[in-house]
Amino acid sequence: MAETATGHTRTAGEAAEAQAYGLTPDDLRNWASFSPIEIYWALKHDVTPAAARRWAREGVRICDTVRAIALGMNPEEVRLWADAGFAPSDAVEAKEMGVPLEVALAWREAGFILPDAALLIRDGWTLEEAVKARYEGIADEHWYPSRSSTGTSSTS
Amino acid sequence: MGELLRRYWHPVAGAAEFRQQSVKAVRVLGEDLVLYRDKGGNYGLVDQHCPHRRADLTYGFVEERGLRCNYHGWLFDHTGRCLHQPFEETRHPAGRFKDKVRIKAYQVQEKAGLVWVYLGPAPAPLLPDWDRYYSRGYKQIAISEIPCNWFQCQENSIDPVHFEWLHDNWSRVLRGEDGPRAPAHQRLGFDEFDYGFVYRRIREDTTEDHELWTTGRVCLWPNCLYTGHFEWRVPIDDTRTLSVGWFIDELPGDAPFEQDVIPCWYAPVRDERTGRWIDTHVMNQDFIAWVGQGVIADRTKEHLGESDRGVILIRKRLLEDMAAVAAGRDPKGAIRDPGANHSVHLPIIGGLNRPAAKAGPPPFPFLAGQPEEVAKEFEQAWRNCAAAASEELTTGG
Questions:
Q1: B214 in contact with A, Cβ within 8 Å
Q2: ipTM score here?
Q3: Does A81 touch chain B if contact means CB atoms closer than 8 Å?
Q4: Helix (H) or strand (E) holding A26
Q5: Does any CB of chain A come closer than 8 Å to the CB of residue B345?
Q6: Which of the residues in chain B have pLDDT under 70?
Q7: Chain A residues whose beta carbon lies within 8 Å of the beta carbon of residue B345
């Protein structure tokens, strides 16, 4: 274990990883609490420690922070999704794939996790079609969402 | 999909195989080809059929330079040029017919004891030079043919939860153990980096401080798993996959260890006695899951959940990369800067220089069927290194 100036301890394995990525003691000090691969990826994409911490407070890891910044998001958008019970990475995925929160909620209600739903929507599936394909023959009818529920249009 | 995969180098054989033979039939990415090493030491990968009368070049013979067809003696080099047409040149010495004939030929390189091929457009990217190749240890290569599509194999490379069930819990059942189940997964995480994705996990018995979370394991793009050893899933065609494993066992002490030849062996996947898939070793268990999904897994019949976030991640990325290639761009992980291709680091739990097993040379856990001579060679290497380390301690050297 090696302790940084901020009290964050790193295992020997982490220290070896940091060395392999060419990270300096200053990097490790400035990026305490981030893993070596995250620090490497942040530095590569010009994410500052302050920005990274701001996003990390919302539970967003560096690779999603890089995407979120590229998408013009702000951390508060993630909180909206987190309040609705989605993983922080889902907020970024939804933004990238153009899935509104209410649509994501409808698909989740029908049993689809966000990244799965986003790909299906991109491929032109309606919620009704997806549900039918997913559950036909293997689930009781009560699994089927109401046909009038949100997300049955082709843009859902 | 094929256009994407043609942007990468793929391992198709062990270099050690070309100590015993000089010509080998290979099918890769749906093409029937012949891999050879001529007497000058050059590898070549050419069409299986001679462009003259379509004879099978698997039965050709190598010369100082190139491969000669056994039917009428036409000779081709590794670039596909025809070097010699014996009877044509006798009858028309100035005819230069050979200059008008070429055979389809692809690039070949040898690295880390493997023979790699590139079937894409020029210029080829660089063959990655991973840092793990240079670790000290006993290395071996094991190859299996799996009768299913490559991508369901690769999806396994970013599916942490399967380890708990397919390997830990099922193995306990197979051993007849009634004890507690393996530590359950609690959280998963995924990070992108230059050469693929890292998957991270927290189990009941680990925390965020554990290297399973801080470092994680690597889904190496586009068709490999890296956990300290490599498992490439090379498409033979749409319905068969060549599983190519590159393994390393750490050795005691730190005296230099040189391995003249990295042995390469072919691992059986089916128990000849019962006709069932072999289930005793880690990768054999993976094979059972993959072939069980069908020759080409029908994704329309799946029901994806939280454990499948990694699978969805690479499906999406694969589609994006296919679009990138169609648009004329490089896909993820292609290395073109020679300066950046020296001992390229991949995340590894425990570091590159891990201690050897203390109790003695461990049995090979990944695949059934390891030849006795390979096991013995490793054991001897381990004991030699242990003795050298012990002597060094005794003499204080």
A1: yes
A2: 0.87
A3: no
A4: helix A25-30
A5: yes
A6: 396-397
A7: 20-21
